[in-house]
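Allow me, if you will, to draw on your knowledge of protein folds for a short while. I have a record of one protein: its chain in single-letter code and its fold written as discrete structure tokens. I should value your view on which stretches of the chain appear to form regular backbone elements. Thank you for your consideration; the sequence and its tokens are set out here:
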Amino acid sequence: MDSKFFETLAALGTENSLDTEVMIETVKSAMQKSVQRMYPECKESIRVDIDPERKIFDVFLLQHVVDDEPINHTEINIDEAKAIDPGTYVGAVLEHKLDISKFSRASAQSAKQSIKGDLRDINRDRILDKFLCKENDIITATVMQVEPGRGSATLMYDKTELYLLRQEQIPGEELKEGMQIKVYVTGIVNRNKKPIIKLSRVHRDLVKRLFELEVPEIYDGTVEVKAISREAGSRSKIAVVSHDPNVDAIGSCIGAKHSRISAIVKELNGEKIDIIPYSENPAEFIANALSPAKVLKVEILDEEERTCTAIVPNDQLSLAIGNKGQNAKLAAKLTNFKIDIKSDVSVPESAPENPEETVQPESAEISEPSEE
């Protein structure tokens, strides 16, 4: 057999991240299907031998030797059989080697299409098996290439090529070849054909998963993450509560000498993280969420509409609002309240609100940890 066949076989295996044994079984299956189309009655009488080490690729038709007229290709007359193997006899099974080079173009094309189809199915099943358990979780992948201009990154995870789009990368982060990064698997689409693994480094649940990795108390449920708000690359707020009076939720997240929080900040390319104590009391939670600003009072205006007013000292107004309203926006997302921030100087009822001092919340729900 031409050595190019085995070179192509090895290349296909590498390209599809498949072992040689799997590739051999795929080709065997395709060849059997192709031969069956030529000899429909011989479904159980076809054998394909492939041995890359000895460069063997043979296809045999197994035929019973008979002394009368064969009923179909599963049989062969003794006289014809002796021309192939002089030592054969009636009742024996003759291994009739087929000349693959004489297969019709249609048969060859059929085998090729069958191999492609089998490889697609194998790849689909392999990818789904690998990533279904990783959905809504994080994986550590290696940056293989960053596309110039567009900025999309090619990643490698467990012999599988993945893609991280530019808009799913942390703003300001420069990915380089060889870097190992953690990415959040947001979902799997096109599952019935060629699965696409959707990845993100801007999703807020990436922050949650990083805390679960770094903080054992969160992983085991002693400390619970109640809500997260995030502006990727800039700042995140995470609300936590301890279910054990002897465990400090915030201290657990920070770690000795800031070791835990520092590891997370480093992974997020220097993104600032505010750890907020959660409270079932909405007013108290909102006051905590506006940290680092000090809040004098929070008045809940309408619990159903989730609106409130937060009063802060004059010198804390800018801090409470934050640069471009960021602190207030993150607090609103975290608490799911529309927060109207005012200084402690009384404001006339008829005075129009400063649009930068009133922020709308966004959903602050986070997904539950995936089961191990």
Notes: Confidence is low (pLDDT under 50) at residues 347-356, 362-372. The CA atoms of residues 24 and 245 lie 61 Å apart.
